[in-house]
Amino acid sequence: MTPMAAARGGRTDLAGLLKRHPRLLRVLERHGVHVCAGCLLTLTSPVDRAAAYHGVPDIPGFLSALGLRPAPPRKHGRRASAVRRRGRR
Question: Would you kindly state where each structural domain of the chain is located, as residue ranges?
C-alpha cells in the first residue's frame, strides 16, 4: 500500500504512517520534522499539523513528498456550527 492509499489529506497521525512506511522518516527529516522517542505531540498529530508544529514552510510540498494530498479546507469550525444551532431555537 502506498502512503497515498494509507492516508488521504494529511489527516492520519504520523506514528501510524511511519509504522507502515518507515522509509518516510528520511522525508520528514529533509523537511525539518525531527522525530524523537519523546515527541508524543509530533507522533500523534495529523501529518499536516505535525508539519506546522515544526515550522515546515511548504506544507503542501511536504505532504506531496510523503505521497499525501492536502486536506480540503473545512467550511466551518465546530464552534460556528454550534452557535448556528443555538440560534435556531
Answer: 3-73
The angle subtended at Cα 31 by Cα 9 and Cα 15, nearest 5°, is 55
Q: For residue 80, how many other CB atoms are within 10 A of its CB?
A: 11
pLDDT digits (tens, 9 = 90+) for 5-39: 445 555 678 888 888 898 988 998 899 888 776 67
Q: Which residues, at least 6 apart from 84, have a Cβ–Cβ distance to it below 8 Å? A: none
End-to-end CA distance of the chain: 48
C-alpha to C-alpha distance for 27 and 61, rounded to whole angstroms: 11
d(CA 89, CA 52): 38
Contact 10, 68 (CB under 8 A): yes
The angle subtended at Cα 70 by Cα 69 and Cα 75, nearest 5°, is 135
| 65 contacts 31 by C-beta, under 8 angstroms | yes
